[in-house]
Amino acid sequence: MADGLADGPWAELLVALPLAGMLLALPLGGRQAHRLALLVLAAGPVLALLLAAQLWQGGVVGVALGGFAAPLGIALRADGLSVLMLLTTAVVLCATGLAARAGFAPRPGQGETRAGLLFWPLLLALWGALNAVFLGNDLFNLYVALELLTLAAVPLVCIEGKPEAVAAALRYLLFALLGSVLYLLGAALLYGAHGTLDITLLAARLQPGPATWMAGALMTAGLLAKTALYPLHLWLPPAHAAAPAAASAVLSALVVKASFFILLRLWFDVMPALAGLGGATLLGGLGTAAILAGSLLALRQERLKLAIAYSTMAQLGYLFLMFPLAGGGTEAQPWSAGAWTGGVLHAVSHALAKAAMFLVAGLVLQAAGHDRIRALQGLGRAMPVAVFAFGLAGLSLMGLPPSGGFVAKWLLLTAALASGQWWWAVPMLAGGLLAAGYVFRLLNPALSAGEGQGWRPVRRRWQAIPLALALLSVALGLAPLLPYLLLGLGRSPAAEEGLG
Amino acid sequence: MTSAATLYGLAGAALVGIGLYGLAVQAHVLRKILAFNLIGSGVFLVFGAVAGRGGGAGGGDPVPQAMVITGIVVALSATALAVALALRLFRETGRVTLPPDPPAGARDG
Amino acid sequence: MTALYLLDLVLVPAILLAACTAVGTRDRFAAVVSFIVYGLLLAIAWVRLGAVDVALAEAAIGAGLTGVLLLGALARMGRRADEAAAAGPPGRTLRLGAAALGAAVAAGIAAAVLALPEPAPQLSGAVAEALPALGLGNPVTGVLLAFRGYDTLLEAVVLLLALLGIWSLAPDPAWGGLPGLRHRARPEGVLAWLGRLLPPVGIVVGLYVFWVGADRPGGAFQAGTILAAVWILAVMSALVEPPAVRSLALRLALVAGPALFLAVGFAGLGLAGAFLGYPAAAGWAKPLILLVEAGLTLSIAATLALLVAGTPERAAG
Amino acid sequence: MTDALLPALVLATSLLPALVIFLLPEPAWRLRTAVNLAGAAAKLALVVVMLAGVAGGATYELRLPLVPGLDLLLRVDALALLFVTLSAFLWLLTTIYAIAYLGDGPDQSRFFGFFSLCVAATTGIALSGSLITFFVFYELLTLSTWPLVVHRGDAGSLAAGRRYLGYTLGGSAALLLGILWLESASGPVEFTAHGRLVGLDAGLLRGCFLLMVGGLGVKAALVPLHAWLPAAMVAPAPVSALLHAVAVVKAGAFGITRVVLDVFGPGLVQELGLGLPLAVAASFTILYGSLRALAQSDIKRRLAFSTVSQVSYIALGLALAGPVAAVGGLVHLVHQGLMKITLFFCAGALAETLHAHRVEELDGAGRRMPLTMLAFSIAALGMIGVPPMAGFVSKWWLGMGALQAGQPWVLAVLAGSSLLNAAYFLPLLHRAWFLPPRDAEAPAVPMFRREGDWGLVLPPVITAAAALAAGLFAAFAFSPLGWARLIIARDYGL
Known about the structure:
The structure holds four protein chains of four kinds.
Chain A: H1 3-7, H2 10-28, H3 33-58, E1 61-64, E2 75-78, H4 80-104, H5 114-135, H6 139-157, H7 163-194, H8 199-205, H9 210-227, H10 236-242, H11 245-270, H12 277-300, H13 304-319, H14 322-325, H15 338-368, H16 379-382, H17 384-398, H18 404-418, H19 425-447, H20 460-478, H21 481-487, H22 493-497
Antiparallel strand pairs in A: 1-2
Helix pairs in contact in A: 2-3, 2-5, 3-4, 3-5, 4-5, 4-11, 4-15, 4-20, 4-21, 5-6, 5-11, 6-7, 6-11, 7-9, 7-10, 8-11, 9-11, 10-11, 10-13, 11-13, 11-15, 12-13, 12-19, 13-15, 13-19, 15-17, 15-18, 15-20, 17-19, 17-20, 18-20
Chain B: H1 2-25, H2 29-53, H3 62-93
Helix pairs in contact in B: 1-2, 2-3
Chain D: H1 2-23, H2 29-55, E1 60-67, E2 70-76, H3 78-102, H4 108-127, H5 131-149, H6 155-186, H7 202-219, H8 228-231, H9 237-246, H10 248-264, H11 266-271, H12 275-295, H13 299-320, H14 323-354, H15 365-368, H16 370-384, H17 390-404, H18 409-434, H19 454-472, H20 480-491
Antiparallel strand pairs in D: 1-2
Helix pairs in contact in D: 1-2, 1-4, 2-3, 3-4, 3-9, 3-14, 3-19, 4-5, 5-6, 5-10, 6-7, 7-10, 9-10, 9-14, 10-13, 12-13, 12-18, 13-14, 13-17, 14-16, 14-17, 14-19, 14-20, 16-18, 16-19, 17-18, 17-19
Main location (chain D): membrane
InterPro entries (chain D): CPA3_Na-H_Antiporter_D, ND/Mrp_TM
Protein name (chain D): Monovalent cation/H+ antiporter subunit D family protein
């Protein structure tokens, strides 16, 4: 590879390009906005791969924006974790963008419509915000990026204008705002105590003390509200269920992961030494509650999209088991940072799988006009590819091989058993069984023999989009060595040694 | 200067508390939004205290001041969106409060 | 010094009192008015803290625009009885719990504030050192447009995004049309009189605030807010109609600032070797910064005005 | 290179057809059939190549590292070949049978896609060289079987599918926990390195053994984990054949074999005192299954309970831990497969052609479908253990092994089970051959035309012949018995 490619401004472009697209889409108008958006989205995987190559060749990528080095300026930083999230984001957004044409591309002969225009700049802004989060190395900048994310995500929830979606969006907005204001408060205290918000500098300067403790607690609480960890999950299911499927896919797959990503940065990079056993155990306990409560609620839903949304709540719970399980390997283990890696892989495979599921739900709505689980007889014949994709995505949620979810769960479970904390293994296994329960409860009517009435036909190429995502989530289980090596680049030492 | 800055920092802490109380207690959406703005400005005051303690030539550390300006604009953006959502909710359903939490086993809706 | 300290001792309780009223009063209108008063008091506090830029922003945006938004919404929702009033005052348990939570959090923050280290770690030295190279006199503008320009770029997009979010709530048939309700003002009324008198003054003040921002307190956000306020007043006094949402000129005005900022940022890649960087050659940085600020002022003014105007509700005439 | 390539190819011969078939449109009957049969035949041919190779001392190994410590490892040893040969052979026949059985029914692309996937999973189970690889394919088998069980899509199938999943996924969770617990103490476990577990805490080892065998026992239908199997007989006949003979139940029994022989090793199992409890559990299952079979009047249900009973011979043989009994258990893996698949093929054909579902509907079936009933009879007699049938060989080695291991009570179990087998099979044969048909107006069609589609007749005849041959030529080196003796000799270091 030429040096020019390896040294290009890929990190900056990953933030700037989506925003440029968003700005351009507005004057361009509703007839062309979707074309522009798809063009920009298509560049995403390419840019993310170029950044990955840059990381692979030269180690952690750091960019001092404007040439002003931290602490005066703001830095972007891309380590393995960032790049993996960026890649996932680019792929999921590409797929979502393609799928969203069904609902938001202008029909021939029609003028500009509200949703047909606004969906695309909102989606691009969402993408830019996600990239800004995954690349951000400054805690205040991350606050702005989070707000950008929220303000792009909330309108997407109610862009179809349904009353229940408006209520859900408002509730989502209030939760998110409370979360970010708590986060900001923590950032203020950290600045007061250390004179910088650059993550790398903070990590080096960090002094324990009341201000730092309080900052950590406030920021964690704020990020938990945004990540919808039990018991702060109330906003998530209605919002993710009421949004149009393409938006739900992005919200469930990626948006909640952004605040989780910052939480990881905070705990593992900024203040690993301060994160005591108590805090980590508390997060693990809440994660356990989320797994169990979310799965049980998903089992009780009558509507497909609500069931999938509650499943998101449950799956997010697994991510929090990383905190108590980090480190703690034994000599019998031939790897390091098992739990941390498992958690990150879980986030990625869940992103792919959940996006696939919501896109399938979108196809179901399109074909049947409803998503009542009981009335989905004959779905397997009407859209076999989509149902297959749903099943494959389900593998990852259940944590069954072959899938990324399996490898993730395997790493987490092994970490639990190897460190003698076997009690964390119980909710993981139980959650897998419950997930099997709700996934097959959804598949059951789809495979039953009754002919569905009035299914509108859905062409195979629309069904192929969720299938591609689901296959990727499976492929992640067959070739996780690459992500594993990638994740090792620039990984925080706390991921290997544990917190506290 | 420093002691005054700390005083405003403490005021900011109190404002956050007052805002949290309002957010929890008030049912009307607009009043929730108002309470959120109180919390926000309390946080900005804490930032201001941090900046003010910094002394500096003109008036304190300019970096947190710039952050507060950014924060104020962001808070306004969020408020505007929240108000618009509240108005839309009112127009659609006649409600000025958020519907109660969705029941666990939400039925067809 | 003592007199100033006395001011603090009066101002802080007044702020807290206004806040308590805004949260506690039964009358919603009174609550919003208290909030506006609170915002103005806060602006004085910011002056006291030596942050005049922030004081301007707080007065114009925090108290002014937020207050207008809340008042407008309250007016449209009406003051008649609704389910919030029907539910009666919140239960005792809820109030006690919320009070305990609020007090605990406040106490925690207070403890943290009191425990902040002496001397305070800060960046004012670093800013002062780097500022001359940009040719700027106002360190806050330096931080906003150069050192932390990335934040400002994102923030400008956030503002625009809020507008898109509001637009996305429009009824479909009204798409492309005019935002907000039709305003009627008697031609000989006070409002119309103000509407005719204030705009020229406001525009001049706005431009001045923009222009001095490079060296003294002021800048794109404050100036944009003043210009937006002028325009809002003109609309409310029925002197002008807001532009239709589908208008290309409007859309260009909305995106001009952030787009210009991005373009200069990209140019920085070539000219300064860094995205969002300004060329090191003397005299280049300030014009570029002013250019960006000019664009931002225009876009911020347009965006803020339309934020207040609300969702498109009328088909274009 | 070929050493790594061959296992991959064997796997691909069913994985690729699965993917191709999924993509085929429903009406492409010819193409689908061709792909199916080509895959099955290619797999059998490759297996024969490997048989020759392994007999000549070659080893085949394919390693795909996923994360450090999690390798997918395919390795061909003698035990792997025993199972893969059985499944490859039976799959070819089951495919022929299934094509004839399903005729022009609906959802065939789905059916045959998952059918191939199922066999790919079984092949993977057979060839897996480490515990985690085994688990991966074991789960793939669970999941790819479910759409087959619910294939008809009626309420009964869906209920059976739910029960199947509930049991097997619960079992998998236990298995996974056992594997991970063991590996968290010992590092990754491969099936070659003996002695890796020596020195580990006995309590941990016992716990892991219990979890693993308990988890595998679900698929192996050990009582009380068996209830899914009789319920699943609502599935189409080829699926029953798959469940009972080719894949699912066998996968469980094969897993227990691997755990006893290659993970713990027979010596360690005895040392930990785990052999006797397993033997008792297996004996109980043998008798309980037979008793329940006796009470069933639905033919397929009777066969299903018979499977519950017969599969536990395998676990029994291994639990006794002497080399002779182990040979008996291993060889029964093959023998039971051959005999039970014959019985299910025949039951399916009888149900299709004569609509005979219940025991009393078999009256006179021998006259109307002589070839089918002949195959059925051979298999049934074999199950009872009449010499010189295959079943007799198994029981003989088991009995001798029990004596050698000093557990004479097992003889009583074997004898009792054989009596019960006779009690539930002989009445069927009696009705078929010696009673007149119930409906007098049996159609007057020439003898062999009455049998129905040749695709339903040929497979059971072949498997019955194979079962017979396995008994008659047991002394030959390439017979199942000869192969089982080779495996045991290597494992016990004899």
